[in-house]
Write a structure and sequence with these properties.
- This protein is mainly alpha-helical.
- It is built from 28 helices and no strands.
- It folds into four domains: 28-212, Serine Threonine Protein Phosphatase 5, Tetratricopeptide repeat, CATH 1.25.40; 251-343, no CATH class; 348-443, no CATH class; 445-530, Alpha Horseshoe (Serine Threonine Protein Phosphatase 5, Tetratricopeptide repeat), CATH 1.25.40.10.
Length: 530
C-alpha cells in the first residue's frame, strides 16, 4: 500500500515538475474556432482554456487582451462575462458580467449583431439570459435550456458540449429535487466523459467529470480524470486542487495533501498582499484536512498559520461588499481550521460561547466539554443552538444542535435520550447530498454517534454507525479506529485487525492509538497483521 502511494505521489510530482506538452502553455488543449484569428484568437483560446479551470482573473486578462486587439470580437466579451462568478454557487453577482457585455454594445440587439455566426449568436444568447433580468434560479435554468438548444444544433462541437455540461451542473444549484439533481449530474458527467475519452488534455472535460461524480458512489468514474487534471492545466491553481475532490472520496490522504500543497503554491505565486485569498482558500482548507487525516499535525498547524497570514494581508477593507464578503470568508476559514484541528487531534479546548460563535466552534467546544466532563459548557452550547433553531436556522445547524444534545445526555448517562438526538441528526443529514470534500459537520454525525455508542458500551450498534461513516467517507482514521475498537470489543478479531491495519497504513504520527493498533495486530494472528 505504501509503495503504491509513493509511486502515485512520484507520478504526480513528475507531472507537475516536468514541462507539459499542453497547448497554450500549461492550461490545456482546446479547439474553439471563432470569427476572429491571429493574436486576438490566441488570447481568446487561452482565456477559454483557463475559464474551463475556473481561473477567473487569469481568464479575464486574456479576454480583455483579445478585446484590445479586436474591439468588436463578441466572443471575447462572452468569455469575460463568464469569468466573474463561480457557476456552481447558487448566488451569482451579475454586475460585472453585465458591464462586460455592455462594453460590446449598449443593448442585446446591438451585441447580437456583432456575433458573426449562428454558433456565436447561440453562445451570446445564452449569456444574455444568464446575466439578464429575473431571479437567479430562473436565469440559470434559462441558460441551461439555451445551451441545450445550442448543443442540439451543434452536437459534434466539443466546446458547445463542454459549456452545456457546465450549465447543467450550474442549474443543479437551484434544483431542490435530490433525484433530479443526481440525474443532472450524470447527464453532465456523461457528456464530459465522452469529451475526455477523445481529448484527454481538454481542461473542461476533466474538470466537469470530477464535479459531476463528486460523491462517494460515483467517484470511481472520475478517478482517471482526477489523476490527469493536474497534468492538463498546472498553470491554474484550481486545476491542481480539483483532483482532491475525487482523492478525498477514496480516502487518498497523501494525494489530498500533496495536490493542495501544489495548488497553494500556484495560487501563492500569483497572489499579492492586498488581494483576496482567491484560489488559495480551497487549498488552505482542504490541505489542512488532508494532513489531519494522515496524522501530520505539524503541517496541519502550518496551514492555519498560512491562512492567518494571508487573511491579515488581504485588502478586504477597501473592497466594498465583495471585500467584506471576502474578509468574512477568510475569517471563517481561519476559525474553521482551528476548530477542525481541535476535533481531529482531540486536543480538547473549552472556548467561550457567544452569540457570534460559529456553529463549528460550538460543536468543537461541546465535544471538548464532553470529554472533559464539563456539563455546564455542554448545556450552554445546547442553549445557544436552541436559540439559533428558534430563530429559523436549520440544515447543518439543526444537525449540530442534535449532536450537542446527544453529547449532553450521553454525558448525563441518559443513553436512550442521547440516541434519540443522534437519530434526529441522522434523519436530517441522510436526505442531503453525500459528503463532498472535508467533513461537514467538522465531526461527522455517524462517526460521533458510533464513538458515543462505544462509550455507552453499545458496541454492536456502534459498528453499524461506523459502517455508514466509512461508506460516506472512506479511510477516515477516526472512523477506522472506532470501528476497530467496537469490533474488538465484540470479539470480531479479524474485522478489528483489518481496520487497525488500515489505520496503521494511513497514519504518520505517533499517537497512542497507533501503538494500540500495532499491539492488537501483534497479538491476533488472524487480525490482518503484516
Amino acid at each position: 500500500m505504501k509503495l503504491l502511494k509513493s509511486f502515485a505521489l512520484f507520478a504526480i510530482f513528475s507531472i507537475l515538475a516536468a514541462p507539459v506538452n499542453a497547448q497554450f502553455d500549461s492550461v490545456g488543449s482546446i479547439d474553439f474556432a471563432t470569427s476572429e484569428s491571429g493574436e486576438a484568437q490566441q488570447h481568446f483560446l487561452r482565456g477559454v482554456a483557463i475559464l474551463h479551470s475556473f481561473g477567473w482573473e487569469q481568464a479575464q486578462e486574456q479576454f480583455r487582451a483579445a478585446q484590445e486587439i479586436a474591439p468588436d470580437f463578441a466572443m471575447a466579451y462572452w468569455g469575460e462575462s463568464l469569468a466573474y462568478n463561480h457557476p456552481l454557487f447558487s448566488n451569482m453577482d451579475s454586475t460585472e458580467p453585465r458591464a462586460a457585455l455592455e462594453r460590446l454594445g449598449p443593448t442585446a440587439e446591438i451585441r447580437m449583431a456583432k456575433a458573426s455566426t449562428a454558433r456565436e449568436k447561440g453562445f451570446l444568447k445564452a449569456v444574455e439570459i444568464l446575466w439578464g433580468e429575473g431571479e437567479i434560479g430562473d436565469r440559470k435554468l434559462g441558460y441551461m435550456e439555451a445551451m441545450r438548444d445550442l448543443y442540439e444544433s451543434f452536437p459534434d462541437d466539443d466546446e458547445v458540449a463542454a459549456f452545456y455540461a457546465l450549465s447543467v451542473l450550474s442549474a443543479r444549484a437551484v434544483t431542490p429535487d435530490r433525484d433530479l439533481d443526481n440525474r443532472m449530474a450524470i447527464r453532465a458527467g456523461t457528456i464530459a466523459l465522452d469529451i475526455f475519452s477523445r481529448k484527454p488534455m481538454h481542461p473542461g472535460a476533466a474538470h466537469y467529470t470530477i464535479h459531476s461524480f463528486d460523491d462517494p458512489i460515483h467517484a470511481p468514474l472520475a478517478l482517471e480524470a482526477a489523476y490527469r487534471y493536474a497534468e492538463i492545466a498546472p498553470a491554474v491553481s484550481h486545476a491542481r486542487h480539483m483532483p482532491t475532490h475525487i482523492f478525498i472520496q477514496h480516502g487518498m490522504w497523501d494525494l489530498v495533501s500533496f495536490n493542495n500543497q501544489s495548488a497553494y503554491d500556484a495560487a501563492r505565486e500569483l497572489w499579492r498582499p492586498g488581494q483576496s485569498m482567491g484560489d488559495a482558500i480551497h487549498s488552505l482548507d482542504w490541505g489542512q484536512y488532508g494532513d489531519l487525516q494522515k496524522g501530520d499535525y505539524e503541517k496541519a498547524r502550518l496551514w492555519i498559520d498560512r491562512i492567518e497570514t494571508m487573511s491579515t494581508q488581504g485588502g478586504f477593507a477597501e473592497g466594498g461588499a465583495r471585500g467584506a464578503a471576502g474578509a468574512a470568508r477568510a475569517n471563517n476559514t481561519v476559525a474553521l481550521t482551528k476548530n477542525r484541528y481541535i476535533v481531529e487531534t482531540e486536543e480538547w479546548q473549552i472556548q467561550d460561547i457567544t452569540g457570534d460563535s460559529p456553529d463549528h466552534a460550538l460543536l468543537a467546544t461541546a465535544l471538548s466539554a464532553y470529554h472533559e466532563e464539563d456539563q455546564a459548557t455542554m448545556q450552554a452550547a445546547e442553549q445557544e443552538f436552541k436559540r439559533r433553531i428558534e430563530a429559523g436556522e436549520d440544515g447543518f445547524t439543526a444537525i449540530m444542535a442534535n449532536q450537542v444534545s446527544g453529547l449532553l445526555h450521553a454525558g448525563m448517562n441518559h443513553p436512550d435520550v442521547a440516541a434519540r438526538f443522534f437519530d434526529q441528526a441522522v434523519e436530517i443529514i441522510t436526505p442531503m447530498a453525500p459528503p463532498r470534500g472535508s467533513a461537514q459537520p467538522i465531526k461527522p454525525v455517524f462517526e460521533m454517534y458510533g464513538e458515543v455508542l462505544v462509550d455507552l458500551g453499545r458496541h454492536e450498534d456502534a459498528i453499524k454507525q461506523f459502517e455508514i461513516s466509512l461508506e460516506r467517507m472512506p479511510n477516515r482514521p477516526r472512523s477506522l479506529l472506532g470501528m476497530a475498537r467496537a469490533q474488538a470489543a465484540t470479539g470480531h478479531a479479524d474485522a478489528a485487525g483489518e481496520h487497525y491495519q488500515m489505520l496503521v497504513n494511513i497514519w504518520e504520527g505517533d499517537e497512542g492509538f497507533v501503538s494500540e493498533a500495532r499491539s492488537y495486530l501483534a497479538g491476533n494472528a488472524g487480525g490482518g497483521s503484516e
